[in-house]
Amino acid sequence: MKKSIGILGGMGPLATADLFRKIVTLTRAGCDNDHIRVYIDDNASIPDRTAAILTGGADPLPAMEDSLRKLERCGADCIIMPCNTAHYFLPRLQALTDVPFLSMLEAAAKAAGRRFPGGTAGVLATRGTLATGLYQNALAAEGVACLLPGEEEQAALMRVIYDGVKADAAPEAYRADLAAVTEAMARRGADYFILGCTELPLAADAAGLHVPAVDPTEELAKAAIRWCGYSVKGE
Fold first, then answer.
1. Mean pLDDT (whole number) for 220-227
2. Nearest partner of 10 among 54, 55, 57, 71, judged by Cα
3. Which of 63, 72, 87, 198 has a CA that sits 20 to 30 A from residue 47's CA?
4. Active-site annotation holds for 83
5. Is there a catalytic annotation at residue 228?
């Protein structure tokens, strides 16, 4: 029997919409009835994950659990989160439910190893994601080498994410930062990039960034489609 997806969203809202759009556009379907049933809880009041990890900000878990319970009541068969940094809290969330979570980090790391064998991944992410080693660990599990941004590059990425996409700024406001980071990391040995914050695929598209990359949002969408018993378009 085909299964349904629950999206624990709001982190941020545009990234949540991007994940839903990618599920729809990547599902092989000939009509409306061929698509997956998707439940979305877009809770934009979930406290910032990076602030919770690095500076003692409010714990996002209670608000995330509230979303989880709503998705359970809807009948979601699996749950996905369009926020890389939120995966730091995934073990605590998974312990609260029997509904399986699918990992965005795992999906991205597997895609990196498959698409760029032997290459070095430049990890673009929030300070919280980088500080916790989320991608370093996921990539190591797949035998993928990685390169991390330096301090100034991390600051530039935070501007792209928070002052750019999350603030609904025009691409001109963050295009230079994004290009500078990827160019510098490519010179240091990054063969391709992991867009390891759900705002970054949006930023890359809007800014016209053309670099070889893995989009974790897209890979999570594909993993969820397959898990639910549907086919991914083009596969």
1. 98
2. 71
3. 72
4. yes
5. no
